[in-house]
């Protein structure tokens, strides 16, 4: 079909004629007829509390969000109508998931999808119309709908009531009489016209006889003029031919065409003068506007220079602000980390302070200190006793050495203190 040819990638340009761009409008009108056959206004629009779509709803962009919701809702209703259970999409649903589910259902019917799913997210266009048209066909098949033969309305021709006198002849009657008269000479086979040689011979013989019988002198009529007029008046009604007027014949409207042509020519001459004046006024106005524009540009040139400089300064300031904002963000992050650590330290200090206010640990500490002092005193005493014993041992040792020295050498030379 034509819509199958137009689907697909937008990179392929097909030579389908200038009317191919209007094909979505035609298919949309056919889709609307199919929806009406499925009674969508009662079963869909009223139940969903939605307005019925017009004949160019999905062919022209109006409101993409509303059109996408209408497209998905209508596609879901058509799937349910075709016997495929499909949940009615909601406004907060993921559009990608909804489109993917719809395309899967369409592929199950055997229809080829050779365009990206993103084409359906806009909610309008030939691809949306193609999907809905295919689903409408499947819904009609599911409901066992059959197309009947077309009924063409009978065209009533407006014919003029012509009162025919018995003495008048119509053009049709003349043609019938001529056809009856010539039927004696014609053959049975009407498809191949034959030449009547016998008739031509008789005609030639009559012509030769007429030429040979021409009088040498001018003939004079012996008919009475009054009798001739009476005969003419008698046969005049029978010679009158009435031709039926046909509104489709261009000769009937020829005079009217000439009148319209003259009227258009007269109106064109009158309007051409006004249009020429209007063109001159527009040209002068455009020249004034152009000169005024040049004057304004010359007057505002230095202001424009200042404005450009201000724009450059603004851009530099924005860049500096962006860099400073980046530093502030980093410092804010560090401040948050330090604040978090400070909160942890405060929590630990509170826990330790609460434990220090308890008296039991303090009493134990004091007892331990007293015990340590007592042990230190005992250790000092033991150390003093050991030092005293050691001193006595040294004195005894020195005394023995002195005695040995005196006994061996004598005198004071060997005295050792």
TrEMBL record:
The subcellular location is: Cell projection, Cilium
Q: Which UniProt keywords apply?
A: Cell projection, Cilium, Coiled coil
Q: Which GO terms describe its biological process?
A: intraciliary transport; non-motile cilium assembly
Q: Which InterPro entries match?
A: Intra-flagellar_transport_57
Q: What's the domain of life for this entry?
A: Eukaryota
Q: Which GO terms describe its cellular component?
A: cilium; Golgi apparatus; intraciliary transport particle B; microtubule organizing center
Q: Which residues form a coiled coil?
A: 328-355
Q: Chief subcellular site?
A: other
Q: Cite the PANTHER family for this sequence.
A: IFT57/HIPPI, INTRAFLAGELLAR TRANSPORT PROTEIN 57 HOMOLOG
The entry assigns this protein to a family as follows:
Belongs to the IFT57 family.
Official protein name in the record: Intraflagellar transport protein 57 homolog
Source species: Lymnaea stagnalis (Great pond snail)
């Amino acid at each position: 079909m034509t819509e199958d040819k137009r689907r697909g990638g937008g990179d392929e340009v097909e030579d389908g004629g200038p009317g191919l761009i209007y094909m979505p409008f035609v298919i949309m009108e056919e889709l609307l007829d199919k929806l009406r056959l499925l009674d969508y206004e009662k079963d869909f629009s009223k139940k969903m509390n939605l307005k019925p779509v017009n004949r160019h709803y999905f062919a022209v962009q109006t409101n993409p969000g509303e059109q996408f919701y209408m497209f998905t809702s209508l596609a879901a209703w058509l799937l349910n109508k075709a016997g495929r259970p499909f949940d009615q999409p909601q406004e907060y649903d993921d559009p990608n998931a909804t489109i993917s589910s719809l395309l899967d259902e369409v592929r199950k019917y055997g229809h080829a999808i050779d365009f990206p799913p993103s084409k359906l997210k806009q909610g309008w266009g030939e691809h949306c119309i193609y999907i809905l048209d295919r689903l409408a066909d499947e819904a009609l098949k599911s409901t066992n709908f059959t197309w009947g033969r077309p009924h063409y309305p009978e065209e009533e021709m407006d014919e003029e009531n012509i009162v025919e006198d018995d003495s008048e002849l119509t053009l049709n009657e003349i043609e019938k009489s001529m056809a009856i008269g010539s039927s004696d000479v014609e053959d049975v086979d009407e498809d191949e016209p034959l030449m009547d040689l016998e008739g031509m011979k008789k005609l030639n013989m009559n012509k030769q006889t007429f030429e040979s019988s021409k009088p040498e002198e001018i003939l004079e009529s012996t008919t009475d003029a009054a009798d001739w007029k009476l005969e003419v008046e008698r046969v005049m009604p029978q010679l009158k031919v009435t031709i039926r007027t046909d509104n489709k014949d261009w000769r009937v409207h020829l005079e009217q065409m000439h009148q319209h042509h003259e009227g258009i020519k007269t109106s064109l001459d009158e309007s051409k003068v006004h249009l020429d004046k209007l063109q001159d006024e527009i040209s002068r106005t455009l020249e004034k506007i152009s000169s005024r524009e040049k004057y304004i540009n010359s007057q505002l040139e230095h202001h424009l220079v200042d404005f450009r400089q201000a724009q450059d300064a603004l851009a530099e300031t924005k860049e500096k602000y962006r860099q400073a904002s980046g530093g502030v963000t980093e410092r804010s992050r560090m401040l948050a980390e330090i604040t978090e650590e400070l909160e942890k330290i405060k929590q630990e200090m509170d826990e330790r302070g609460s434990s220090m206010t308890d008296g039991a640990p303090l009493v134990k500490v004091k007892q331990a200190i007293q015990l340590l002092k007592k042990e230190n005193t005992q250790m000092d005493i033991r150390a003093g006793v050991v030092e005293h014993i050691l001193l006595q041992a040294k004195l005894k040792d020195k005394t023995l050495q002195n005695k040995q020295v005196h006994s061996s050498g004598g005198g004071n030379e060997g005295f050792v203190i």
